[in-house]
Amino acid sequence: MFEKMIKFFAVFVLGFLWLAVLLLAYFNFPVKKTNNPIELGITFSSRYSQDIGLNWKENYVALLDDLRVKKIRIPIYWDLVEKEKDVYDFSDIDWQLDEAEKRNAEIILVVGQKVPRWPECFIPKWIGVNNEELRKNELLKNEEILQFIKDAVVRYKEHPAIKYWQVENEPFLAFGDCPTPTINANILDREIEIIRRLDPDKKIIITDSGELSTWMSAAARADIFGTTMYRNIYRQGWGYYVYPLGPRFFQFKRWIIDRFVGQKNAIVIELQGEPWVSGWTVHRSLEEQFASMNERKLRQIVEYAGDGGFSEVYLWGAEWWYWLKEKQDHPEVWEEARSLINM
Predict the structure, then answer these.
(1) Which CATH fold would you assign to the domain 38-341?
(2) What's the rounded Cα separation, in Å, for the pair 258 and 103?
(3) pTM for this prediction
């Protein structure tokens, strides 16, 4: 009996490994080049731009006027807008939206407690100063974020620059310095319901990891599903490597969400356009940064996204491009981005 169990287990493991090899081979089988046009946008974080020593308003205007970006994803940082309970300062968001409107640019406005840029979760200190306190105050936090989203939607639902709402950022991915590994699904559903009720005419984007998720939970809730897409990775203990996945991997996942949850609308919400390095990007040498991302790699990853069948793509790293140009006298990535965006 024991020998039969060992044989069964061995056959199961070998079968699993063989299936994994076949899938990997399929994902890396060349795809037919379509050369279909790709609409390129960016994510812009005023917070990150300032953190790396830039004048964030100058950075933003340069993106609009020099790169002529027409699609921008902007996060609302809860802890910056509501530093004190019920005392709001939306002035920075107002300014970004108004500048976009002047240039006929369209905005994805991101709301929630988890929005783009590290540490991912941005919860006001008046709720708690560390994750242990935030976990203790979970009920308070949940009710307060629902109220904040309601107030933000009421404020901005008529703004002509806003095209889509994004609710939370990768809510089902356990990533970031957050009080809980993922966003509670019931709270996420309540956040979505608030936006649908207050602003029923705009579509809602829900996002998930391109490589580390099945997409199913996010795609089932979304009007438009947004995936991240990274190629050149650093992981502690592993070092630097390139994901061994061809664009068929993303074609296959799009087929899965279409087949099983009826989601036909998928975009790349976050395409790697800056280095993924050990530690704070701008604290590493330029040589190490360029080994992970440069103008050549930027063009290659945009082509990779197109080969995956995506026609709408938002690049990540616009602040870093500007930092290279303004602080390091390296405009090459900035100029390549301009070429790609206006291609």
Answers:
(1) TIM Barrel (3.20.20)
(2) 35
(3) 0.93
